[in-house]
Amino acid sequence: MCGIVGYVGSKSVVPLILEGLSRLEYRGYDSAGIAVGGDGPSLELRRAPGKLRNLEAVLRDQPLSGTWGIGHTRWATHGRPTEENAHPHRDCTGRLVVVHNGIVENYLALKQELAAEGHTFVTETDTEIIAHLIEQEIRSAASSGKTMALEDAVRRACRRLTGAYAIGVISADEPDKIVAARNGPPAVIGLGKDSLGEGEYFLASDVPGILHHTRNLYFLADGDVAVLTRDGVKLTDLHGEPVTRPVQRITWDPIQAEKSGYKHFMLKEIFEQPRAIRDTTLGRISLETGKVFLGEMKITEEDFRRATRIHIAACGTSWHAAIVGKFMIERLARVPVEVDYASEYRYRDPIPDPNAIGLLITQSGETADTLAAQREMIAKGMKTLAICNVVGAMIAREAQGTLYTHAGPEIGVASTKAFTSQLVALFLFALHLAQTRGTLSDDESRTLVESLSLLPGKVEEILRSADSVCEQLAKIYSGARDFLFLGRGIHYPIALEGALKLKEISYIHAEGYPAGEMKHGPNALIDESLPVVVLATQDETNRDSHLRYEKTLSNIQEVTARSGKVIAVAIEGDTHITQLVDHVLYVPPASELLLPVLDIIPLQLLAYHIAVRRGCDVDQPRNLAKSVTVE
Q: Where is the Glutamine amidotransferase type-2 domain (predicted)?
């Protein structure tokens, strides 16, 4: 959530920060602000509620100039989204400001303590407490005749905070310096050079905010403090002890974070899925042998052979991917799989099992609940693996192995290419586990790997054929108040994901249900105004798949008997289903375990076109954020 961009260098800082914040808009926000240091004796602030364009309008009327500063887009947690509550926040002197992502859980106790010391507060936020706490440390040192550096005051203040934070701090008394600290939400430091070859340094809450200026980054770990000056970057822990972090070279092309002619990032990312799937499989499969290679891991083949079960934890769309993964892993590797919402995992007090393996699925690698689940798994004695899209993210650093999805930056809040890449990564993991445990023959492995290699072309085929069909369906159904999505077996989580996509971006109430549960409640909802999307694809070479298909046809007849409108997703050439439903979205044939990747493509397009038709903000749906970095 929220966006942070900071800069120290020789360039004009205001356009640079505004550009960076605009590239972080996908994270979700409801106000914005900027603080700039220049040649004058104080810091200048500009803030505005609403979108960045409102802040830009303020800056046109009240311009700022300088070569160092910080900016922020805020997603309200404490206090309404007003100009007063927008970041940055000042201390009492007005000479020090803070931007903050996260939640300070003990802010009320700190506020009372600081008020007793004479501090006056002007906002409803927990962030303002941090500014005053830093000021108090500097003031206490001065009362003893000492001078305390900004970074020392930040370290001392942070040691008193309970909760999650990524902060950036600047002071008029220490020009050309930014102090950053992290505990929970992500923070990255960029290392660059200006046109004269002089060093320039960046702070951001996510990679796209500074990717146009540098690809060389430090990812701060929890407890890290970074000091950015014209002379470079120094990293320490909260007690001032030096720490080292590897410089990560980001290989994303900055153009990948642009719309490239598409109307919305979401549409661009839907159409990037063939490339993302190819990149996720690249170098990991052998068509000749059928083998899967997952690179360096601290989990050995013996660990995999000895595994008693797999515990998967994830949130939102990644949780839907996890349910699909359960089918894949149990079917291929014959290992029991438990899937938990990451936010609930530690509250059920999972039974310790050192032979179980934890698997965390997350696009950002920084989701607070998923990190908490990972740490609970580790505390229970498990080794953990991660499926993640961001190289160097916290969850990857704490795992014993990471399967990166290589989907590239995903800007739209509603996940698309990250989801299909996660499905592919789970398929690769299931194959690797099965091969290690000896539950698949060589011929079976080769057949499945060949099916996987054909997947990108099949997704391209769907994108060519389904986009215009979904646009036409949007004209018919964009006025619906409710939708129902149905699926059986491995297709049930795709029904959940289809419903989530629609409700996220169009604000239409939608539910995903197992088709076999229709008689246990959902039938009561069906009337002539209810569109029902049914996943009716099948792998004709698989007996169980065909049986599932036949039962799904019976569910369709239950809906039509009650005058519901049916949109079916079916396999190309299935003419029988056209006699039973109102509309058909076709996908190419594929292996049963890979059909979910094809099933979801038309559902993404349908949700997108309905949302556009309703005039919704597709890339930044209300009340949602891309990366949920607080609990």
A: 2-231
